[in-house]
Amino acid sequence: MTARIGVVTFPGSLDDRDTQRAIRLAGAEPVALWHKDKDLRQVDAVVLPGGFSYGDYLRAGAISRFSPVMDTVIEQAKAGLPVLGICNGFQVLTEAHLLPGAMLGNDHLHFICRDQKLRVENAETAWTGDYRRGQEIHIPLKNMDGRYVADPYTLDKLEAEGRVVFRYVDFNPNGSLNDIAGVTNEAGNVVGLMPHPEHAVEPLIGSGRTDGLPFFTSILKKLVNA
Amino acid sequence: MARVVVDVMLKPEILDPQGQAVQRALPRLGFEGISDVRQGKRFELEVDGPVDEAALARIHDLAESFLANTVIEDFTVKVEEGAEVEEAAK
User: Fold this and answer.
1) CA of A128 to nearest chain B CA: how many angstroms apart?
2) Where are the domains of chain B?
3) Which domains does chain A have, with CATH numbers?
4) Residues A35, A196, A199, A202: which is the catalytic one?
5) Does domain B2-89 have CATH number 3.30.1280.10?
6) Average pLDDT of every residue of chain A
7) Which of A215, A140, A206, A134 is nearest to A167 (CA)?
């Protein structure tokens, strides 16, 4: 039996299909979830994909956070359900206060789309077990609102507790504080990051690297061995 | 009907590149002497029924949980004086 991993589609989600594909390539079973549906169909983990849910109106992720599916995601994430938020999904997780801090517009005010070098800072979360701490990977980054901010107390706490999961290397593409590209919650089951691992899972596509695949194999191993 | 205005601003310590871009454009447009611009959001809520303490408390909750993200933003809630008079005059 393999793991069932849900992917939520919001109005304006863009990368839900790519995420489902990445899950399938990793050997797990993707399950489509719908924003209006409170039912998570008994999945073992959930991915909130990238895109511009609800047009990013008000703030990126602000309206999605109140969708029916998120009521259940928030409740179950607090009980330990593994949840990964990619890009817009990360924004939804900060708006839902499942992850600390907030996302704001890139400091240079431009949309950005590039292959981004990252350093894995925490290989102990539910989603990063197949990486090594200190490993450098290349993952596509594409966003408007990628600037991670948090108050100094929260930043210090995140750093002290090893909850910065990924950091931008060589170049800070959006003005994120402490070069933060991704963070986790205290329990390590909820992870959010701006770059898109689901776009780096096949040698044929993009940079030719498959540096994103370990996200999906990490969670599969975690669930199957549980 | 009465109008309640919720103003939302980024907290002072949060960088506001949009405001900076506006500020930098000012000299080119002939506006001198403006050293800083910060850009915010204004929500005008048309409220059915009286704007009593209970209604204002509900709007405060709405602003705190939804209109503003208090991790990065501050907000104020104001009843717009004269809104009812304006309505009557139309």
Assistant:
1) 27
2) 2-89
3) 4-224 (3.40.50.880)
4) A196
5) yes
6) 96
7) A134
